[in-house]
Amino acid sequence: MGQPHEGDEAGDRSGTGSDKPALGVGMVGYAFMGAAHSQGWRTAGHVFDLPLRPVLAAVCGRDATAVRTAADQLGWAAAETDWRALIARDDVDIVDICTPGDSHAEIALAALAAGKHVLCEKPLANTVGEAEAMAEAARAAGDRGQVAMVGFNYRRLPAAALARTMVAEGRIGHLRHVRVTYLQDWLVDPQFPLTWRLRKESAGSGALGDLGAHIVDLAQYLAGEPVVGVSALTETFVRERPLPTGASVGLSASAGGHLGPVTVDDAALFTGRFGSGALASFEATRYATGRKNSLRIELNGEEGSLAFDLERLNELSYYDGTEPGTRAGFRRILVTEPDHPYLEAWWPPGHGLGYEHTFVHQARDLVHAIAEGGRPLPSFADGLQVQRVLAAVEESAAKNSVYTPTAS
Ligand SMILES: NC(=O)c1ccc[n+]([C@@H]2O[C@H](COP(=O)([O-])OP(=O)(O)OC[C@H]3O[C@@H](n4cnc5c(N)ncnc54)[C@H](O)[C@@H]3O)[C@@H](O)[C@H]2O)c1
């Protein structure tokens, strides 16, 4: 297994606390998530007192010039053009996968087989079969002391982590409802090009696997239990789009003249059932005009409710149903106190955090797990379970919304 090693040139330049053993990071993909993860790895050891010193050892992309430029911009010591070479490097202890879903399984399986720790972006894979193989490999690797985690970064928002703690403490009582929406609008224009996110062979599914995976994970994390079955509708509103010219980055790309078929869903709506009997509703779309990255979740229990809105990510709304009716009401908890999750190392109360901090927290949690022999969550088994919910959604949608149990 790749062991933390003493500092080298890259470590001295990228890490902090030179007395600490280095943890060499190798990242595949350097666009949207690559930039976000780079920021996480660069920052975590400078903010939190970590047991190991993350070192940005090498980044991988397929174009030699572009990946070298990205390495310099994002702070990586070396650049590789083949992910196999990245995995084989002695100075890489953890492989961080920031590529589209069609390469997650192959890279993760090879990295685990090579004895490396793995962080894999969501969704874990494009199919349940791939996710099963990854979860099994991660389980076996875990027995050898390796760590594998999925990048469901919204769990690492302080307000979401606080909400989880409050649910686990029984602050809303027996759960009845989870209501969650994840809305974007970057596909409203029918001329937006046919990037990898709109092709089944590269993305697995559309809004479902992209946004739906996040909200299924978040709902299950906050509820503390899995979705056991769903009834679903999916739709592809625009069935042909212009082919892209050149590479896309994140949600941006430019369009050429020729059209190609969209082979994924544009929107997914589904209801779900938890084992406890609680009901959930989910909506994931790229056609919610005016909604840029709107993720809202509300949980209603017998004794209270919690609500979170990603556009106000330093806040958590809480209704305490045990208070006298004359005094009760939703109250806003400003989640910036040093005792709140992840906040001990950041700014004074009231000086809020943002989206990018989730990736710093993700790196922090992984470093602790690796140093302390922990099994960080969400595990690949958790990623597989989300994948099974997504598969049940697709199956239900194909059968006119018939209720479809989640495979186990
Ligand atoms: N956690 C989140 O909030 C979040 C947000 C966006 C995307 N994602 C996930 O992150 C992953 C990447 O998405 P993105 O938005 O960064 O995509 P992107 O298009 O911006 O970047 C993809 C990168 O992967 C590289 N790449 C593709 N195939 C490769 C290969 N075989 N070898 C080496 N490099 C390869 C591309 O060159 C590019 O650098 C996806 O799984 C996506 O679902 C997660």
From TrEMBL:
Q: InterPro entries, alphabetically? A: Gfo/Idh/MocA-like_OxRdtase_N, Gfo/Idh/MocA_oxidrdct_glycsds, GFO_IDH_MocA-like_dom, NAD(P)-bd_dom_sf
Keywords, A to Z? Oxidoreductase
Which intervals carry biased composition (Basic and acidic residues)? 1-12
Q: Does the keyword Oxidoreductase apply?
A: yes
Q: Gene3D superfamilies of this UniProt entry?
A: Dihydrodipicolinate Reductase, domain 2, NAD(P)-binding Rossmann-like Domain
The molecular function terms in GO held by this entry are: nucleotide binding; oxidoreductase activity
What sequence ranges are listed for the domain GFO/IDH/MocA-like oxidoreductase? 163-306
Q: Which domain of life is it from?
A: Bacteria
Every copy of the Gfo/Idh/MocA-like oxidoreductase N-terminal domain together lies at 24-147
Region Disordered: list its residue ranges.
Answer: 1-21
Name this polypeptide is given: Oxidoreductase
Q: What organism is the protein native to?
A: Streptomyces fructofermentans
Taxonomic lineage per UniProt?
Answer: Bacteria, Bacillati, Actinomycetota, Actinomycetes, Kitasatosporales
